[in-house]
Every structure is written in structure tokens, then in C-alpha cells.
Amino acid sequence: MATAPRFWRENPSRYNLVGFKCNACGRYHFPPRILCPQCRRKSVGKIEPVRLHGTGAIFSFTEIHEGTYEQDMNKPYIIAMVEMDEGAKITGQVIDCDACDLSIGTKVRTTLRKLSEEGSAGVIHYGYKFIPVCNGPEAPADK
Amino acid sequence: MRRVAVIGTGITEFGELWDSSFRKLGIDAGLAAVEDAKISAEQIDAMYVGNMSAGRFIRQEHVGALIADYSGLAKDHIPATRVEAAGASGGLALRQGFLAVASGLHDIVVVGGAEKMTDVSDMESSMIQSSAADQEWETELGATFPGLHALIATRHMHEHGTTREQLADVAVKNHRHGSLNPKAQFRREISRDVVLKSPVVAAPLRMFDCAPSSDGAAAVVLCPLESAKKYADVPVEIVGSGQASDSLALHHRKDICTMDATRVASDRALKMAGLSQKDVDVAEVHDNFTISEILAVEDLGFFAKGEGGEATEAGSTALEGDVAVNTSGGLKARGDPIGATGVAQAVEIVTQLRGIADKRQVKDADVGLAQNVGGTGATVVVHIFRRA
Q1: Domains by residue range for chain B, with CATH
Q2: Axis crossing angle, helix B89-102 with helix B338-354, rounded to the nearest 10
Q3: Exposed (0-12), middle (13-18) or buried (19+): which is A9, by Cβ within 10 Å?
């Protein structure tokens, strides 16, 4: 079992989608890195932490029936690769919907949810998941 | 750089081998390879062992020294090195052995690969396999290893019109090949229907789209080509070796329907060999999932992007096809003891080029290729072999 700091140090990105903009090439990336993978040394001193807006569209998705320990209670669950509006791609769960309601291109937004817990008395880990964006009158209020 | 040949091969049975420990498997394969090469222990200069995760599968690290010890090589104090690149560990161990002989540093090198996966539960095994992906930004968010390949499959079907049936055809073909391989884990043919009705693992991938968990080991013996005839009637030369890396996480790739590392590694290997894709008669590719073989046959340049599914359906990758792919049964049917897989691929290609593959022999096989993938494509190793 991992210690809590193993997860805590990632919390800014897990809770608030903190990635970065490389001011050498103008691209947005997630999660944070020391160097822009495109610009490398030219990006030194030009990495600007930014919080992604949290909206994007499904690039690919799957419904997982054989899960991991952490997700075991929730099977089946949906995992998607989402292309955020800023251009970065992120992998995460899609919730509050059925797989048959989704397709490539479906608009989603992030929401903060429980990711996993380390046993009944262990640390609870929170982070982003995705929910489909509805256009109708029942659309949820903005986060 | 010296030219390098394979002069001996050894492989264990692959499967759920409850009576066999990791060290027994490693020694069985190594001993078979050494006997095949007709060399003695004193002649061995170095050993490389491909292994992904003995630390988590059997709670044993330091397996280079372990295998050297139980091979009886500790008393000669040979250098023994464990090599790890997830699923590509075996292919990478072969490359280290190749480089060691090519450089002139060592003359006779044993390359082994081994994994003992069934000492842990299926769930634990899945968790360990998923550590080949990005643990912090894929796995911990709920992405499983089959799940990441399902993302590739969904997108490939969307962009290129690959069908669910074509994915199934990969498994059907590889099971048919496996039925002809006495060392395969699954030696039974299956129908398309069996694949399509098997339980969903990560949609659209089903159980029969996934390679099994396996115990097993494989080994080859390498030496300079100029002395290979002393040991082997039909030495097989390693004429090309290529390795490439890519982003660890799938979501950072330029195009998730293409494994760029496969493209680059095979270009490098073919360039070294002075050959082209058209020269390849037989290939072992990393079909840990059916979609992976579709990508492999496209990215290796056997078929254009988007045509791998159709080519499979048309039988172009079968034993009697344009390029025989996974004659051993592949990871799907031969089995996939992770660290052993890349070496097992080399064993199959050498067997084919020696012309001793029996019922699964590809006629007049002269050039063979092995493609070994780590993670979802973050490491790819490609080797080209030719009858010497």
C-alpha cells in the first residue's frame, strides 16, 4: 500500500486540472512536466502552469467489465480518452451515463469525484471524472 | 561491428505450470538452448535475462544473478543482466545480447526470457500488467491494460472501418496456428462465433481478443557469424536490430491508431539489414490483443494504414498468405509469459528459417521478423533474421 504523499503531490492536477502552457510553442499539456515534450530545452523558463477549463470531447472510449481492485465495485464502468478544448488529451472515467449514450465526439466536462480508497480505513483518493454535457433544460449548473 | 548468429534455441511449454517455479522455467529453456548449440558452460561469456516483473509476480528481484546461479554459471562469475521494458523485455534482452556480440566484447552469449505469472491471482496479474502503462495518469484513473487497447480498437474502427469480425479473425487465425505448435498454450482451433460470444473484457474487446496469463521461458544462444558453423548446421543470422520509444501514456501519442515506435524500430532494423518489408516471409508480431496485430501488420508496412483488418479477413496473414504472421500461435495462442515473449518470438523465427517448423512450416522461408512491444507502444523492438 502506498503512502499518502504518493497521491497528495498530484492533487493540484487531480483536483483542479492543472497542466501547463508552453510559451515557446503555445501548446497546452496535461499533466505538468519539467520540459515541453515538443520544445525540450527551448521551453526552460517558459512553462506556465495553467488550469484547464475542463470541457472537451470524447476521442475514444470503452466500457470496462474486468476491472482493477479500486474500481471493482463499479463494474462495468466507462473509460474515455478526452480531447480537452485546449488540445491536451486526458484519460478518465465517464460517469452518470450509459455507454450506449456516448459516441466519439460527445461533449463532456470534468467533475470532482472519489477515484478509489485504500481499504475501509485507508486514504480516500479524489480526482477528475467526466460527465456528458447536456444541452437541454435539465443541464446541470456549471461547476 | 561483427555479424551475429543464433546457434541454439530452447523453449518451455507455455501455460499455467503450477509445478514449475520461475527458476526451473529459466533453467529448462536455457539448458535446451545450450544443448541445441552444443556448447559447454565454460564457453558462455555473458547472459541477459528478459523479465518484466518478477518483483511483483514472485516477489523476487535480482533474477539475472538467480538464473546464472541455478544455471551453474555463478562459479564462473559471468556477467548476468536482467533487462526490463514491460512486454518488450525479451526482445530488448535479445538486442543487448546482439550488441554485446556485435561489439566484440563477448563471443558466446545466452539470452533468456522468463515470467512466472500464475503465482498471483488473475486480478493481481492484471494490475501488474497495467503497470506497463502510465500508472499515475492512466491506471489510477481506472484504465486497465485491455481498456487502453480497447480505446485503440474503438478509434481504429471509427477512423478506418475495421470491423468487430476482423478483430475476431486475428484470434481465429492465431488459434489455428497454435493448433499446429506442440509448445503452444492453446492448441485448439476456435471459430469467429466463439470470439464474438466470449465475455466482454473492455468493449469492444472480449476474452478471446486477449492473450492469456502464462508461465514460461525461452532462450537463444548467440555467437559471431564467422564461428557459427562450428555449432549449428543451419545458423540463422540476426541481420537487423531496431529499437524505438514513444510516450508512456497512450493519450500523448500523435495518433493512437499507429504505433510510431513500431514504424521507427522496423525501419531501423530493415535499414541495418538492407532489406524491405517485401522480403519478409514470416513474422512474429506482438498480438497481446487482436487489435495489436492489426496495428502491427500496418505499422510494419505489410499493409497500408487501415487495411490490416481486411488483409486478415482475406487470409493474407495466414500460414499460406502473403506474409505468414504469428505461425507459433502468437501471444494469443502460444501464450504470453511477458518477459519470455520476445525471446519466444525469436525461437519461432529461427525454427522457421531452419525449416524445422513441421506442420506450421512456411515454405522456403528465408527472411523473418519479430516485433516485440512494451506497454501500449512506448517501447518496440524489431529484429530481422535470415538463413546464414
Answers
A1: 4-121+214-230 (3.40.47.10), 129-212+239-387 (3.40.47.10)
A2: 60
A3: exposed
Contact residues, chain B to chain A, C-beta under 8 Å = 123, 126-127, 130, 136-144, 146-148, 150-155, 158, 199-205, 247, 249-252, 256
Report DSSP state, residue B151: H
Q: How far apart are CA B17 and CA B244, in angstroms?
A: 33
Q: Choosing among A22, A91, A123, which should be mutated to test the B contact, i.e. which has the most B CBs within 10 A? A: A91
Q: B196 vs chain A: nearest CA distance in angstroms? A: 15
Cβ of A64 within 8 Å of Cβ of B199? The answer is: no
Which residues of chain A neighbour B141 with C-beta distances below 8 Å? 79, 91-93, 115, 127-128
Long-range contacts of B20-25 (CB under 8 A, 24+ apart): B20/B116, B20/B215, B21/B58, B21/B116, B22/B54, B22/B57, B22/B58, B22/B60, B22/B63, B22/B66, B22/B114, B22/B115, B22/B116, B23/B66, B23/B67, B23/B70, B25/B114, B25/B116, B25/B215, B25/B216, B25/B217, B25/B337, B25/B340
Whether A126 has its CB under 8 Å from any CB of chain B: the answer is no
Residues of B with Cβ-Cβ distance to A69 under 8 angstroms: 123, 127
**CA nearest neighbour of A22 among A2, A44, A55, A53:** A44
Task: Check CB contact under 8 Å for B141 and A65.
Answer: no
**Which ipTM score applies to this complex?**
0.96
Q: Which fold has domain A53-133?
A: OB fold (Dihydrolipoamide Acetyltransferase, E2P) (2.40.50)
Contact flag A68-B204 (C-beta cutoff 8 Å): no
* pLDDT 10s digits, B295-316: 999 999 999 999 999 999 999 9
Question: Domain segments of chain A: what residues?
Answer: 10-51, 53-133
A100–B contact, CB cutoff 8 A: no
CA distance B284 to chain A (A): 28
Is A64–B202 a contact, with Cβ atoms under 8 angstroms apart?
yes
This prediction's pTM: 0.97
**Rounded (10°) angle between helices B145-160 and B122-130:** 60
Per-residue pLDDT tens over the stretch B180-236: 999 999 999 999 999 999 999 999 999 999 999 999 999 999 999 999 999 999 999
